[in-house]
Amino acid sequence: MTGPIRVLLAEDDELIREALAGLLNREPDIDVIATAADGRQAIERALAHRPDVAVIDLEMPALDGLGVIAELARALPDCAGVILTGHGRPFVLRQALASGARGFLAKGAPGTALADVVRRVREGQRYVDPVLAADALTAPPSPLTAREIEVLQAAHVDRPIRDIARALFLSQGTVRNHLAAITRKLGADSRAEAHRIARENGWL
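Above: the chain sequence. Below: its structure as tokens.
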């Protein structure tokens, strides 16, 4: 490979975006050729500039990091994707790797670590931040039964009990009992909060 590694950096926080770009541009073999403030912009600029590596924040407006990586894997298969995240929840790690990401790195990692990951993925390697991997591996298993997960998936935020019962061929009383058990197990105050907790932990 000749010339510097061409990098696209997508991060919605302007200060973080500029700081990361500055750190990467200090490396003699890395050149940040474009930046983006949201997911759609990241895809547009990647298609325009065709970077070697795309460093993408997990949580962004318009389209999240997983969506960006998946789209780039289809449109620019030679572009290696790296996800930046603040947490290592198991389902996020699995989804990131399934989306085509080659790297998974904590946002708080030193700039030299990000540069090293950029080099590794450009060479075809994979990299998962060991701290994030440990967090994912030690995350608690789901306290919900298979039926409770099914009820919670069908419940949404404000779907009427009768509609949930009809969809799952259960009585309304059974649905109420399941929802009560779900909120109790998850320590939630509402159905919406229970859904959020379960989703964020990858139990849905």
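The first strand starts at residue 5 and ends at 10.
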